[in-house]
TrEMBL record:
The active site is at 117 (pros-phosphohistidine intermediate). It is found in: Cytoplasm. This is Nucleoside diphosphate kinase. The lineage of its organism: Bacteria, Bacillati, Actinomycetota, Actinomycetes, Pseudonocardiales. Gene3D superfamilies: Nucleoside diphosphate kinase-like domain. The keyword Transferase applies.
């Protein structure tokens, strides 16, 4: 059973030249890229993407950050792709939670600048794929 997940390389990852590293790890794991796009995000998409965090104190700066630079948006497919990519990414806090060997564990230092996003459930994946790739 194959599933799809939405992956983002956030502006810090793009700025630091880590797009290739992220894609390389996705491919080495055996997951497949079915869409890939470098773009800037408008505020409305960013706010919708992170709607679940709208009441959190970091929401404003998170949306600000995501909209300040280019991001890479990708649809990634494979068996248990959602969980597989979350493992590749590592925990949200790159120092306290992400294990060494994960993307965040290897390259991140601050919670906000944690390089990548991956959908956290089938429902999120479906919602986020529609939001980022409305053309289908
Ligand atoms: P993401 O949604 O970006 O894949 O990350 P995640 O599931 O691991 O973490 P989540 O709890 O959904 O948080 C979304 C993003 O918000 C930023 N954040 N900042 N300053 C803070 O305390 C804080 N907490 C979260 C991070 O960029 C996180 O990835
Ligand atoms: Mg999340």
């Amino acid at each position: 059973m194959s599933e799809r997940t939405l992956v983002l390389v956030k502006p810090d990852g793009v700025e630091r030249g880590l797009v290739g590293e992220v894609i390389s790890r996705i491919e080495r794991k055996g997951l497949k890229l079915v869409a890939l796009d470098l773009r800037t995000v408008d505020r409305q998409v960013a706010e919708e993407h992170y709607a679940e965090h709208a009441e959190k104190p970091f929401f404003g700066s998170l949306v600000e950050f995501i909209t300040t630079g280019k991001v890479v948006a990708a649809i990634v497919e494979g068996p248990r792709a959602i969980s597989a990519f979350r493992q590749l990414a590592g925990g949200t806090d790159p120092v306290e939670k992400a294990a060494p060997g994960s993307l965040r564990g290897d390259y991140g230092l601050e919670v906000q600048y944690n390089l990548v996003h991956g959908s956290d459930s089938p429902e999120s994946a479906e919602r986020e794929i529609k939001l980022w790739f409305p053309e289908g």
